[in-house]
Design brief:
heterodimer, A: 138 residues, mainly alpha, 2 strands, B: mainly beta, 3 helices, globular
Chain lengths: 138, 424
């Protein structure tokens, strides 16, 4: 009986830490993500995430970045032809190459960085989430 | 050095440095000529020039054409109130448009006037309109069905005096790799894109419903030409090419961050029929001052290979500045040195990051008998505003008025400036 109660308490406590709606941001992952961003993303999306008019989409407070994480992970893995993204009436014409050569951890890191930089605030992306999307593509 | 002498020397150096940095760009350590400039309406212009905002808020205002009565036509890359072309009329001659009307329901870049017809391009064809007393007649389809894969889609155009029209068909590609813009992907040799894009096509100005079958590939090996103009003094076509991207990002072993920002050159070509200017196989290396083989095709910043046989550019500019409009000045308003010289509107860069961006300006190249006769210089500057990495205005179109005034468009906000000169 005591064991059950203890287990229940423990589960509740663990839930508070790990499953509560606003998780603390993984600082180390975001730090690593910045390096990934500077190497692979900055040339087009710019240091401040503002992109370039009609060529490279902005990453600042758009539904593409802040919305469905699965879609965002898929964009990294598969790239874009150019023209699919529309923000405030503008489309963006440069194709984005597939970045499937990045490791699951690197993709999780860079997306956690992007979703929490340039004025963005959103939950982090986990390795498990990246892995799951990569499975679907293969 | 004694203290006082040192101070004077220091002051002189300071004055010298500030004198050359005040109204210039980030590029003048490269020997760029910057004339004495003054501030006018937020822009910097050489002494004696004045800029008036003719219109603003037109949005993505691309190229311009001015009719013999002074009406300015603007082609938009995004519809404004459902219209893709606007006519700006200044009825009281104060330089500001007071009668603005729109027509045409398609987006695009190119626009020109010839023999009382207005030619305007969508991103896959060209239409023309007879200009009437109270507007324009219904459009006629001159060209249709050109390659439009979004990347480099602008169908800029120019007309000669022999009934021909020249249309840019930009390559929907960076450098014709098997996988576009993907590091490590090899170049395709021969590049199949060149059959239907990556060059200038010639069509009949009076022809209807033309496409590739009726046109001629006038020049090839041009990645993307947004600025082009027919030079009436020597009867030749001149074009400004946007050079390739991603040299530093894809070849860090050959280009460091700085040389990746400054390479390749943006180039101006004098284009004869049949010219092959070298894309995707070649690029112009600004540091080596030479046309070289692109690394995707085996280049190592030394190999020339097939580039030896390609047409050489006549003017080179720093990398990634994006020359979006070219205009040979034939007016009488500006001082003599501008006569028959070339104005180029640079749209400004993105592929210089993380180096600071550059090139939000209008440049002048002096010409004599159809060839450059001196160094290029900054003509109008200050479009970027306070933050060069977040440009306020982006120069995109140029046109000359019947009085010799120069018009400049911006496709960030849709501002049209009228630049005039007076020696008083």
């Amino acid at each position: 009986m005591w064991k059950l109660i203890l287990e229940g308490l423990f589960a509740g406590f663990a839930g508070l830490i790990f499953i509560r709606p606003s998780q603390p941001l993984p600082k180390a992952s975001i730090e690593r993500g910045k390096k990934v961003y500077n190497t692979y993303c900055l040339a087009c999306h710019q240091a401040d995430g503002s992109g370039m008019q009609r060529m490279n989409p902005t990453l600042v407070k758009t539904s593409y970045v802040l919305g469905d994480k699965k879609k965002l992970i898929t964009i990294i893995l598969k790239g874009l032809q150019g023209g699919e993204v529309e923000i405030d009436g503008d489309t963006f014409h440069n194709p984005m190459p597939a970045h499937d050569f990045l490791k699951d951890q690197e993709i999780a890191d860079v997306l956690s960085y992007v979703r929490n930089s340039f004025g963005n605030k959103a939950s982090a992306v986990t390795v498990a989430e990246v892995k799951s999307e990569r499975m679907k593509i293969k | 050095m004694k203290g006082k002498t040192k101070l004077i020397y220091f002051l002189m150096l300071f004055l010298l440095v500030t004198a050359f940095t005040n109204n210039s760009t980030q590029l003048n350590d490269k020997g760029v000529v910057v004339p004495r400039m003054q501030n006018v309406n937020g822009l910097q212009l050489p002494d004696g020039f004045k800029a008036t905002v003719m219109a603003e808020g037109l949005g993505r205002a691309r190229h311009l054409a001015v009719n013999s009565n002074g009406d300015v036509y603007v082609k938009l890359e995004r519809l404004k109130d459902g219209k893709g072309i606007y006519r700006l009329r200044d009825t009281n001659a104060d330089g500001v448009a007071d009668n603005i009307t729109g027509f045409g329901d398609y987006i695009g870049t190119g626009i020109a006037i010839k023999n009382n017809y207005l030619y305007a391009s969508s991103n896959d064809g060209v239409f023309r309109y007879k200009i009437t007393n109270d507007g324009v007649a219904d459009p006629e389809t001159i060209v249709k069905g050109l390659v439009n894969k979004r990347q480099h889609e602008s169908k800029s155009l120019a007309l000669d005096n022999a009934g021909n029209m020249y249309v840019n068909i930009g390559a929907p590609s960076n450098v014709c790799q098997e996988k576009d813009r993907t590091k490590g992907s090899p170049g395709r040799n021969p590049c199949p894109i060149l059959d239907s894009a990556g060059g200038i096509w010639q069509f009949k100005a009076e022809g209807m419903n033309q496409s590739y079958a009726e046109g001629t590939r006038y020049a090839t090996g041009l990645r993307n030409v947004v600025g082009l103009d027919w030079n009436n003094e020597v009867n030749d076509l001149y074009v400004t090419q946007h050079g390739r991207d991603m040299l530093f990002q894809h070849y860090p072993e050959l280009f460091d961050q700085k040389s990746g920002a400054n390479n390749p050159a943006e180039e101006m070509f004098r284009v004869k029929k049949g010219a092959d200017c070298g894309w995707p196989y070649c690029y112009f290396d600004n540091d080596k001052n030479q046309k070289l083989l692109n690394p995707e095709f085996g280049g190592d910043r030394n190999k020339v290979g097939v580039c030896d046989g390609k047409v050489k550019s006549i003017v080179q500019f720093p990398g990634h500045l994006a020359p979006n409009a070219l205009l040979f000045y034939t007016g009488k308003m500006f001082p003599e040195k501008y006569k028959n010289g070339a104005f180029i509107a640079f749209h400004g860069s993105w592929n210089r990051a993380p180096e600071p961006q550059a090139g939000y300006f209008v440049v002048f190249v002096p010409f004599k008998s159809g060839m450059p006769s001196g160094k290029w210089e900054v003509f109008a500057d200050g479009f970027a505003g306070e933050d060069i990495n977040r440009a306020k205005y982006r120069p995109c179109g140029l046109a000359q008025g019947p009085d010799g005034a120069l018009y400049v468009s911006d496709d960030n906000n849709g501002t049209i400036w009228k630049i005039t000169y007076s020696s008083n």
